[in-house]
Amino acid sequence: MGRNGNLWLVNKQKLWVNPRYKRSSMYLNSTDSQSKMLDGAPSQSQNKSSIEDQLNDLNADKSKPLFKPNQQNKPLIPNNFISDFALKLYGMNVLKFEELNSFDDRNYHITVDPVIKNAYIKDFNKTGYVLKVLNLKDSKTPGLIEAQHAILKHLRMKKFPVQEFVQNIEGKMWSLQGVTKESKEVDGPYIFYMLKYMEGDIAISKPYIPATLFNIGKFVGRLQVALEDFDDAFLRERNFQWNLAECPRILDFVFALKSKEDAQLVNVIIKEFIEEVKPVLCQLRKVLIHGDLNENNILLKEGCDQSSVPQETRHCDVIGIIDFLDMNNSYTIADLAILIAHMSTECKCMDPLDSGGHIIAGYLTERKLTTSEIDILRTLICCRISNVVVMSGYTLTMDPGNKYILSYIERYKPLLWKYWNTSKAELHERWKTILKEYGMNHLYMVKKW
Q: What is the pTM assigned to this prediction?
């Protein structure tokens, strides 16, 4: 990759810098008539105009509040306040607590005294509870908590292993609380709520072997089927930073990336999304999706009768799924893309690019894919990884010492380049080869939906 004036070169293709977005938005123009990416695309001037217009529309849309640059969003909660809030809101005496990793919120696994002064808690949960504090932006939309409660109830009725809300001492599912600092200033207010803690090993703690990836894909297919008859007015209208269908909005945060090459790549990927994905969105299936099927939100347990099998080759079953805070009304293929993007990390027993083949094989046992969905899947995977890398970089500007966020950049940035440097045709051939091992001959099962 080299630089020449205002042009960057990526895979021998020139990139134009839009003056309006010169800090973050750089768009791809090819001088190679054989370029696959721009084959059959409009002329250079038409391309610029079309993409600028769409990004200007995004920038002008103020009707739906989104996270803005330079905004402190994560709750500021001193550790000594956790026990106080648990007692005040839930009548629980905390014996110990541990903060769990999170991008935007605060999550605490708390262990409490069995004697709880709360008339609404009938059964003591021996594994503990999770006290959750929503970020500043989401705390302004309590409809998100009401929707989460409804969707967890819906899934439990369908026998899905998900968490259960805990009522506070007033019998409510959530409460809005300010956090008073030593200076007497009040941070927040933030939404506090509680869930029963679910036991299980998060996916990242287990080897990503083919059988485990197949089981995860199958579980997610079942999850989407279970959500087909669920609806929620708030989620239907929800628009937020991590919505994959709105990924061009991450251009507002590309400035946070230290590497100009990485920032440039993100801009190229967003351009491909606008050119290749947006025109076909109207053809795709939509339901209320989980929205954050990452390696920390899927709970696993080793399958039975594997005591004689080496630890690194033991397969796991899915025993739970957590964190529904990124729920939104979106395209089913987006959830699959998010899943493949996250489960492509930490693949030590196979090439990360092959993980998608095993996941898709499991998924296809429960749901079918269309040709349009398969055609845009690689781009959506790249968009999700771009979102993770960009927002991780931005979060580090607010919290430079956050090792959890830093680990995301270190793991996902090489993965982004790996996916981008693999053509769609090559990726599909890899997946087709894997599907044949499961007796499947196609990546898709129906041509239209």
A: 0.84
